[in-house]
Amino acid sequence: MTSEGFTGSARAGALPPPVRVGEQTDILGESPVWDERTGSLYWVDIRAPALRRLHEASGRVHTWPLADLVGCVALVEDGRLLLAMGDAVWLFDPASGEMQVLARLPQRPEGHRFNDGRCDRQGRFFVSTMHNLTRAPQGRLFRLSGRGPLEPVMQDLCIPNSLCWSPDGGTMYFADSLQHRIDAHPFDRAAGRPGAARSFARSTPPAFPDGATVDAEGHVWSAQFKGSCVLRLRPDGTVERTIELPLDKPTAVAFGGPDLDRLFITTASQHMSAAERAAQPLAGALLVMQPGVRGLPESRFRL
Question: Which residue in 300, 232, 225 sits closest to 263, CA to CA?
Answer without folding.
Answer: 232
